[in-house]
Amino acid sequence: MIVIHSNIASKINEKVYKKDPLTSDLGKKILSGTIELMSEIGFEDFTFKKLSDSIASTEASIYRYFENKHNLLTYLTMWYWSWLQHKCAIKTINIESSEKRLENVIIALTEPVLLDEQFDYINEVKLHLIVITESSKVYHCKKVDRDNKEGFFLTYKELVEAVASIILEIDKDYQYPHMLVSTIIEGAHHQRFFAEHLPRLTDTHEGVDSVTLFFVQLIKSELKID
Amino acid sequence: MIVIHSNIASKINEKVYKKDPLTSDLGKKILSGTIELMSEIGFEDFTFKKLSDSIASTEASIYRYFENKHNLLTYLTMWYWSWLQHKCAIKTINIESSEKRLENVIIALTEPVLLDEQFDYINEVKLHLIVITESSKVYHCKKVDRDNKEGFFLTYKELVEAVASIILEIDKDYQYPHMLVSTIIEGAHHQRFFAEHLPRLTDTHEGVDSVTLFFVQLIKSELKID
Amino acid sequence: MIVIHSNIASKINEKVYKKDPLTSDLGKKILSGTIELMSEIGFEDFTFKKLSDSIASTEASIYRYFENKHNLLTYLTMWYWSWLQHKCAIKTINIESSEKRLENVIIALTEPVLLDEQFDYINEVKLHLIVITESSKVYHCKKVDRDNKEGFFLTYKELVEAVASIILEIDKDYQYPHMLVSTIIEGAHHQRFFAEHLPRLTDTHEGVDSVTLFFVQLIKSELKID
Amino acid sequence: MIVIHSNIASKINEKVYKKDPLTSDLGKKILSGTIELMSEIGFEDFTFKKLSDSIASTEASIYRYFENKHNLLTYLTMWYWSWLQHKCAIKTINIESSEKRLENVIIALTEPVLLDEQFDYINEVKLHLIVITESSKVYHCKKVDRDNKEGFFLTYKELVEAVASIILEIDKDYQYPHMLVSTIIEGAHHQRFFAEHLPRLTDTHEGVDSVTLFFVQLIKSELKID
DNA sequence: CATGAATGAGGCTTCATTCAT
DNA sequence: GATGAATGAAGCCTCATTCAT
After folding, report:
1. How would residue D1 be classed by pLDDT, with cut points 50, 70 and 90?
2. Confidence bin at C116 (pLDDT 50/70/90)
3. Three-state secondary structure call for residue B47
């Protein structure tokens, strides 16, 4: 467990926090409390005051860990991307066929998230909900260029790069590998959100996971697989 | 011009404003000032106070037109979708081939925006920048279900529906027409944002508009056109 | 009265306030309340919250007038300097002798302050106490060069300049007119403070105003008058 | 060296610190770090947190030495006064003429400060800057009467007393010896500050140290020396 | 209808301080 | 004795909104 733990968290850029939340109980409570509260009330309404009340701590204590709620959300998003990287790695171990590896990865990136019992301070299902609804706010803000320079989006870039390299294994002349991957990752988030809140912007079919089916088909069509 | 003008604005749901901004000079100044200011400082830092200072008016006056900055952004987004609808309509008039109409529409949805001189209170180029960066905040918020019931997203839905119907003309059995369209629209926004701020998440090629090329190719691959 | 009123306040640099406190009742209450409260608890402990409580208003309302307590103190100090200018002007009207005018001015600058009934929102006696104890904080701060560029110290400079010019009438070759004047003004504040709190740093003599006597004698000695 | 060291520091009132900073390396680092940081950012913005960061220690550790930043500034000011006493003593040794001793002392009190290599934990030049800008805050505060009772200003009083006694040697009937001395000491600080930040309040002359020249001339005029 | 004035509420942030090791 | 962790309290500031003219 320790090994995997460090795999996930060790990828997180140190500048996003003031004190590593994984080094103390309070830090872990901040993470789990944030996931609980932010999935419920949303990023806009989320404040350190409400969080501190919900975990029976104080604003000042939370400030010891994170400069502001934006960096806290960024931390969770980094964790999610790092966790996705790890999930993709697991799903492609020992598979020779590039096509099969790509398919598995696309499934990993777009399928519904289940609870992963390894990390008791992270509820992956609720974190996924947060990522779907809020993660674009991590970069859709005025700080984006500064945060980018700090390396806050490296885990995301690595994830995209890893999948893009599989695409290039399949078609070394393909022109838009990164565009295709990031469109799928972001697209999967949007479609799951639409399914929940704006169904006329998406398509759902009884008894199947349309989102994953759609994106697997899309990438295969685009890369002329089968 | 008046006709087209009303075509765009008349689609905007009345509940998003308290007083129609197009019925007065101040109202139009609010729109143009918002586009100017929000494209510069971003939605988060945008306040009615700053806006009123920038257009030499008062918070109270702006408040007569819009309940809050969220609805003001929603108004602009509606305007943008309505304007896109109109643009798509223009681009498909008198074209018989469904395939050609679809291609024209995808281009219209994804190409860079140029200044349209028809509406002196709207700078389309800056509005496009705002839409790229901020528009998802219109629905990625806790009000989404309420706003949806009010019909705030109808113009977006109609736009998606219109394109989806062309897709169904081409392949009446296609399973994911709305998903495909909304993925392209949102995807184009993301890719333009990435090109500007996070280039490793996208692909750009010298001298061509990769974003449009990519999405045109993607939809053709997916629908087996050519 | 109106005339004199504008004489004093009209000298105050507009950038020190956000809204002119003399244009409303609340503004005047802010001034009188600040003098009352700050003379009692000191600048360090003074907050907009305490002020707003003491005048039955709110912090936000005070913020409409002054950006921060530093600018509020600066305003009062400007007012004091402007009032001193006016006092010096009165005391030198129709006096031909430069020496007599200088003596009168030094007395005006160093003598104890009595209540001037002209300005009901300013208690000059308490303002003088504030100036003695706190006014050097107006420039002994990191903002000094910025504030100086804004012209916050012009009334002080004009006051010093006016007295220096009388000195030069008496001795056109005197090398340190400004130094002498500012040393006397600041020195009088210090000596009154020491008399109250650190008597061993000053000299008091029964039944006379030592401070004024000392500085009048000092300037006469320095300029070889009599 | 040890002898002189204790001469300076031994004069410092024990109640100003909780633990004598000269008894440990950390204590000396606190002093040198404070001089460095406070001369840079000013007393208002100076906090134990920033200090502890700058010397790689912790707030709690600093708190073991000083109750608050006010006492820390008071300590440095006491050290400065004590150092001035010592400097005056050196400058008057073996000089018979009262007039010459007085002149030397006034020069010592008003001249620019050079780096004294004896105390490696004190940068006298930067300490002088702090004293010029911040030292009046040591007594211009609500604690002044309490601190005075504790004896915090004794070294200052002794310094003034020592110089006053030379004045009385020259003119045993002079009425304002303490006032004259404290006016010169404080005045020299003000004039150096004005020269730097508000030059219109002082007079500077090419190639000479106007401040010292002025105050030497002033005291001679006042005491009718020469 | 537009605006100037005022404000209640609450977010954000830091400070000064204590406690446990 | 030194330090890492935690926190209560308070300051500072702005927002969104209402009221009166």
Report:
1. very low
2. confident
3. coil
Provide CATH code, domain D15-223. 1.10.357.10
Whether C6 shows a pLDDT value over 70: the answer reads no
- A136 contacts B140? CB cut-off 8 A: yes
Nearest to A178 among B153, B203, B222 (CB): B203
Nucleotides of F under 7 A from a protein CB: 1-20
pLDDT in tens, C205-226: 999 999 999 999 999 999 999 8
Residue B1 pLDDT > 60, yes or no?
A: no
Q: Which of residues 121-180 of D touch C (CB under 8 A)?
A: 133-134, 136-137, 139-142, 144-145, 148, 153, 156-157, 160-161, 175-180
pLDDT at residue number A2: 31
Secondary structure (H, E, C), chain A: CHHHHHHHHCCCCHHHCCCCHHHCHHHHHHHHHHHHHHHHHHHHHCCHHHHHHHCCCCHHHHHCCCCCHHHHHHHHHHHHHHHHHHHHHHHHCCCCCHHHHHHHHHHHHHCCCCCCCCCCCCCHHHHHHHHHHHCHHHHCCCCHHHHHHHCCCHHHHHHHHHHHHHHHHHCCCCCCHHHHHHHHHHHHHHHHHHHHHCHHHCCCCCCCCHHHHHHHHHHHHHCCCC
- pTM for the whole structure: 0.89
Rounded mean pLDDT, B12-25 = 89
CB B190 within 8 A of CB A186: yes
Among C92, C86, C73, C113, which Cα is nearest to C7's? C86
Q: In C 5-24, which Cβ lie closer than 7 Å to strand E?
A: 19, 23-24
